[in-house]
Amino acid sequence: MTMIRSEVLKSLIPVISDQFVVCNIGLPSQELHLLDDQPTNFYMLGTMGLSSSIGLGLALAQKQTIIAIDGDGSVLTNLGTLPTIGNNVADNYILLIIDNGSYGSTGDQPTYAGKKTSLTKVAEACGCDNVIECKAEDTAQVMKDAIASKKMTVIVCKCESGNIPVPNITMDQVVIRDRFMKALEAANA
Amino acid sequence: MSKHPHDEWSQVLFRQFKDAGVDLFTYIPDAGNARLAELAEEDNETRLVLLTTEEEGVAMAAGADLVGKKSVLMMQSSGVGNCPNYLSFSKGGNFPCLMMVSMRGDYGEQNPWQYPMGQAVDKILEAMGVMVFRVDRRDELEAASQAAINAAFRNNQGAALILTQKFLGAKAF
Prior knowledge:
- The complex is a heterodimer of chains A (189) and B (173).
- By secondary structure, chain A is an alpha/beta fold.
- Chain A contains eight helices and eight strands.
- The longest helix of chain A is centred in the C-terminal third of the chain and has 16 residues, at 173-188.
- By secondary structure, chain B is an alpha/beta fold.
- Chain B has one domain (7-168): Thiamin diphosphate (ThDP)-binding fold, Pyr/PP domains (Rossmann fold).
- Helices cover 42% and strands 20% of the residues of chain B.
- Classes of the chains: A alpha/beta (189), B alpha/beta (173).
- The interface between A and B is medium-sized, with 25 and 18 residues.
């Protein structure tokens, strides 16, 4: 297991490129933007912890599959999201937690998920039904299966911490919102 | 270890906190508190506790105070937005709450998403009765931190030492 988050994201592109994706704050969004910018990507550049909840709101409100990409640190900061997800089943919702055991965007300081806390077990204990912990290199296949299953799924991908240099996303937040809305509206038409 | 870009002032601030009797350092990691957190972890007389969300630290500060211990809560400015309801507990119970806030969304910020929270930090803290002590330049650090320490521990007050991006340098992302 030697993949870092950007490599996991790269491996996922063929599977998620045409999917609606809500992506976690900071570097994960910048990496996804660099690898495969799509109007179907909703990037977050602030407000840590909200990706999974935005994704759930989206999934409950319409029929397209929604993939929320989150991080271990961000899930830990909004841990209340997991009981809400577990008890409000949306079979068009997939939560991917890229668990690299660190707060990547502030300098790779370790999180509790890299120590004694298992987010997989936490998600299960919170009532989430299909919780799959996988190795970094298996993530793309697990994601493919989860999309095909049409069952709400929580994927916890264990990978290494580390960042690559990435450019800023210069798009305004309102532009990110607008193009995502239009793409989703067209898909639901 | 290699010399950290924030090593010099972090050493000074750590010494000031320690001299004031602070032995509990709670934090959510940020570039601006990374070196101070390392110092608190390395020192045998201080304890560093990683939080999962900032408001936990407000309550831990009160818990420590109940046995006469002093603590400092370190966070990025975004985290200030998570704290107000918990700060009502500090204010209502006259608990000290010494905070060190490293700013985003002010001077030189390059990420527009950071502005709304960054620009609301002072107003939110003031609304919750927390005194604000701002550091824009290196030569303001010691006096501002001493003022915050005094406000917190001599007056059982919420007191936030605000390290601005003018002082820290704006993050490149």
